Amino acid sequence: MANKKNQKVEVKQVERPEVSNEERIVKLKNELEKLDKKENKILFWIMDAKDNPSGSVGNIYVMAYLLQELGYNVSMLYQNDDKDEFVGVGGFIGEKYMNIPHYNINKDKVTINVSDILIIPELFSNLMEQTKNMPCKRIVFCQNFNFIPEIMPIAVEWGQKGILDVITTSEVQKRLLLEIMPYLKIKIIEPSIAPYFYRPKSTERNLQVSIVTRDRSDVNKIAKLFYLKYPLFKFLTFKHLNGLGQELFAEEIRNSVACVWVDRETNFGFTPLEAIKCGTIVIGVIPDEPTDWMLSENKKDMIDSIIWVSNLNKIHTAIVSVVSSWMEDKVPPKFAQDMLKFDNLFTRELQKEKLNIVFSEYIKERKDELNEAIKIFKNKE
Prior knowledge:
The chain has helices at about 20-35, 55-70, 90-95, 125-130, 150, 170-180, 215-230, 245-255, 270-275, 315-325, 335-340, 350-380; strands spanning about 40-45, 75-80, 100-105, 115-120, 135-140, 165-170, 185-190, 210-215, 235-240, 260, 280-285, 305-310. By secondary structure, the protein is an alpha/beta fold.
């Protein structure tokens, strides 16, 4: 979700005729039965990524797909003009994710009931406002805290829009959210790394350094200045990997001696984890808010599995050191061992397990709320 401006969404509210308490009770019991059978809808609001690589959009699709595997009734909602063809993420993370049902609210009829759950990314502030009278449970999915001050109107909180539940991706983001909205009920679901990213059997690699950065101007600052500082290393090739689909991206990472990663605004850090799982040494600029997995056990120092630098000017020396060590087969054994620790972390299986726990809790909470509503209507009869 690279576009940080508030996404314009129009959701029409349907006028409902007056019904008796007895009818309300019957309807609520029907909704409870849907929850029991996992027939209620879990709806993810998305924007069309148009196959542009995005870790955050990709993670939404992965979550939806894994929930579908767990037996939930999952759909993706979006809003496109009739002339604007929906592309999605098939070319980025895989066509199987496009098999999840997609509905364009501009032309498709979508009924949202009290047992349904609507997941709204933090980008869609106006959607939070427009859906506040809907009967469903609404949850904000916050993957990037940095978007909030750019999107939210001044002095407006999610609680004012009737939203108290939030899913986020790390303890760091949870802390940042609670500093501004301490009443939020936050659950953490860490993303996972695609199985495309694995350590190759062969130890052979190209004399290549991959570069992944938000700002394309960083590429010149890294590559051109490197050749000026170290002309004897002109045999080394630099490749800017932004814009590649996951499979090709993973292949390039596996073929590289090192991966230079620059993303000071990151709220998770997919790229360094992907590189580590490929057994590729990462040289990274320290983010403004390092996420949980980047910190050592004392939660103060950065982990030793990555070569950390404070700014771009210090990357060139680090590249020389890493490439020289690799060429001379002198990469410290402890460094390689530290990287191996990530092999069984951030897997699809772990994310699926956490999703099952979190959404089982949401379903139970919703059932408790509906049962309480039934009691209230029975007392009114």
